[in-house]
Amino acid sequence: MIVGFSFRGNASPNWLTIDRKGCLTQQAPSFDPALARAYAACRTIAKREAKNFYYAFLALPRHRRNAICAIYAFMRQADDLADDESIPRDERRRHLDTWLATWRDAAKGAPTQDPVFLAVRDATARFAIPLALLDELVAGVTLDLDHAADGAPETYATFEDLYRYCYLVASVVGLVCIRIFGYRDLRAEKLAEETGIAFQLTNILRDVAEDAARNRVYLPLKNLEHHGISLDALLHRPPAAPPAPAERELFAAVARLAEHYYSRARLLLPLIEPVSRPALWVLVSIYHALLKRIKRANYDVFTRRASVPLWQKLAILAVGLAWTAWARIFG
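and the corresponding structure tokens:
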């Protein structure tokens, strides 16, 4: 069985038929204008907001790309509700709870005019995505609301605590994505989880200064203590001051850990359905390029925010699209 392609109930959907040889074949589903508009809205959100992810989406076949964009738009909605700092934290939580309840009703079949909910409902059914994973996605978003009382910095005591955060905000995304990509070997699930850890550790390194400005330090307190760095030193450092030697050592240790998890991504790639491998490769390559840029800057994440330039993203995408064409022609 290929995980990520299934149908529910006793009858097959109207886009699956039996050919003359008795084989199950996939046909184009009947056209639904409302659903087409919903997916188009999700693609627009992904193109506008997904700075790194969208390039990988382009290497996917259209129906898989639509599903990935829908999931991204769902995450974006939840994240925007949780991160709107113009609204008090308790009110944000209430808005998010209402939004989640509305989604759960839509997932059960209740009428909805929300294009993201329409598209996600279709994608979860089409690719057998457990709704519990979407609940975990939202749980990850709410961590920033629930973690600390107003005024107290958001911190994590140990790497084990941070791993749980990374799992909810990044690994769960990977577990959803591989169901859209398709896989046969259940080892792919743990490898997708670890690939998400690599991505989130990269994000944490890139955003140290930005997060500190928002009263958040994701680097574990135990690791700060090990390197002789105080929490206050990260939260209240002079603007654009370069990192101290101890900070560079800490960031290098986190980068080495991220590299370990990127090695797991290389093991994941051959377990994904061939048609989806180029997209995963593009995504991993762009994120890994970001980590390499942080390392080449000698971990100075304070004076300039690291990013992968457009030309490099397009070069990586070109390789991915060439691979996609090859896979479609030669299998």
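(Above: one complete record from the training split.) Residues 34-80+112-330 form a domain with the Farnesyl Diphosphate Synthase fold (CATH 1.10.600.10).
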